[in-house]
Design goal:
heterodimer, A: about 650 residues, Rossmann fold, 7-stranded mixed beta sheet, 6-stranded parallel beta sheet, B: alpha/beta, Pyruvate-ferredoxin Oxidoreductase, domain 3, about 20% strand
Chain lengths: ~650, ~200
Amino acid sequence: MSFLVDGKKGNKYLLMGNEAIARGALEAGISVAAGYPGTPSSEIIENLAKAAEERNVYVEWSVNEKVAMEVAASAAFAGLRSICTVKQNGVHVASDFFVHLAYSGIRGGMLLILCEDPGAISSINEVDSRYFAKMLEVPLLEPGDFQEAKDMAKWGLELSDEIKSVIMFRSVTRLSHASGNVIIDSLPSVDKTAYFDCHGPVFSDRGPIISAPVPMMHTLQQNKMKKVAEIFEESPFNTYRGPEKPELLIITSSACYLYSIEAVHVLGLGDRVGILKLGTTWPLPPKLIKKHLSSTDNILIIEEVISFMEENIKVLAADFAGEIGVKKFYGKNDGTLPSTNEMNPDILVDALKNVLGIEYTPVPEEYEKNARILAFTKSPNRELTFCPGCPHRASFWSINNVLKMDNRGGFVCGDIGCYTMAILPTGFSTVKTVHAMGSGTGTASGFGKLRQFNMDQPVLSVCGDSTFFHAAMPALVNAVHHKSDITMVILDNSGTAMTGFQPHPGLDYNVTGEKVPSVDIAEVCRAIGARVEVRDPFELEETQNTLMDLFQDTKGAKVLILKQPCSLSPERKGKKNFEMSVNEEICIGENCGCNRLCTRIFRCPGLVWDKEKKVAHIDEVICTGCGVCASICPAGAITKVEVQ
Amino acid sequence: MKKKELKKDPYNVIITGVGGQGNVLASRLLGNMMVNNGYFVTIGETFGASQRGGSVMSHLRISKKSVWSPLIPKGMADMVVSLEPIESIKVMANYGNNKVKIISNTRPIYPVQVIAGELQYPSREDIETTIGELTSDYTFIDATDEAIKLGNPILGNIMMIGAVAGTGILPFDKKDFEKVITNYLPSDKIDANIKAFEIGEKMVH
């Protein structure tokens, strides 16, 4: 039986943090879950979708995070419990609604579950969104292990229902995408009735829901926060381990808790160093903090990414200084720990060594030095690359060739998806700007108006199909309306590929597999008023001719949709359209004028340069049989035979 | 075999390879077998963007006492299972020590810069010498080549798990594998996976 629907309290599973969060939400009896895919958050919605029918939960991948939060909030307005899941960027996308929701309050229970990515393992930012909790004055919970990920998701929803305020729940990559033992609890009844009680008197809990009058609603929220601080004083998720009077007190939260335990263990400091783990990181429980600050003079605060907890604890320490004395703080502000990148046990071992002045070497210096040299010299780096058979490689091959032929210094404004990698050699370094979802076409819309200042470089933007719906549509409207001279290339690979192939509004099925109306990207673009062409990126010549034609059409915004499913999509995975081979008689390798165009520039992992024979060859384990390389070989040495 | 105690607690295993090799499935299968046998297991994985071709590494902490950090501290790996031969060399730089047990697949997956002729991929002999410098306890098996004979190169990951069982170091066996594999794969794929496990198990005997 799946861990999602197993009702037997006490059963034990190995769960990924995101699976544990999904289970906790089900144990709290959620009725609605909405999110937008984003690593490391995506598996929460994916798992809930699997349990949607049996647990009577409505689950959706919304068009973007703001809408996801609105969808989840509507359930909480109607008295139900709900969650909204996002990665760190998502809080920022949803923030306009979030600001107002913090004041307006809810009538059920709701968690905004954000999974952050310290170190940007799967992101192009490592923003620390905990500040939203403080800025918007809503509670913040941070689980410290896998069991807590489940237990706190459940408890957070119950608390939210009690105080009638949305609560932020923050996980990080090393919890969301890590796994550990979790003991499950029972599941509640699935019978729920939704009713939006909105026709009663204004300012009552049966009236309309709005954040105004602001001073009154703001005060109300601040009163809720005072109550929450009291509740947090007694929270079982704030724990202490270590001696009664530690030489050094670590205050930590989230994945850093596990790293802290490890570092103290590695250095054998269990009787000298205490660890106060906080699960409730905003508002901080003042009495609890005061009690622990009183136990020692030296405090090390360990967190990811910047010094959120450290600053807030120091404010309390200043308030209490008259009673508890002045403390020595170590953390990010004094440089004991870095304020960028993720933490790990080794960084904490070094910090403890420095603070306590102790010696420790995990492996002999000579061994480590040799191992590093060998890793550098004998294990060549693996540069990020598009998958074998990826349509993006073909698309950027065409875009890059056309820009070079045009020879006016044209460039591509990039966007968020696998195709962000086109800033690297795998996409022939074609992309020149990358920021937020939809920003490629937004910035292109601006560049396209710089003709007035004598800029004659062709301006292109790229965006994926899911990104188009998420945030690029308004940018295209802007470009069309303002007659901005751009070519927007929509790389439609039939899914939200980078995060694991989630459906989006352009497809005719949803996250639970239900048949739903699809929104046609080409028709939307035509309705907006753009000239629209649709091509298969694997047809290189046709694609390049069309792009040239769009360049020459200098008036306003044009759209080229390059449509070909992702090579990892269910439609293509494991299926070869062509058997590829290299005719070793025809391939003359380095003596050919092409200078190994296929392996040196095109760089598909399925094509390998055979140093001995001095010819290219196909790696049959890697090749997906897309057939594109046959079109790029100037000698015609690569042949494709259609698979029947 | 199940009764056997861990050599060390926590016992730290790193499964390393390249995106698309089934690294994550291998670590989940091994982790689940250990949980079923009464252990605490923590797995730390890096599998962000799903593109293939990048290094993928899973850290498994196996303990009778508690969950541990999802990242192994420096120099503290006990076993490295390498689905691709040069990946174990990368792992050893951070987590290695001269007592690590390395079980490595022989089949290379060339980094794109090797394909492009910008970097050199070491020869089989060179790889063996390098690993021999880092630890005296290593075994190479032709997992992918055998998996291709079975009809699907992806089964190489299961063969490697079979090889881990074959070493007898960790307390699990084929019966444990049969129990967990049914939760992960459709029934028509079970037999091939069990066969792959058996082949892997024999390869280290």
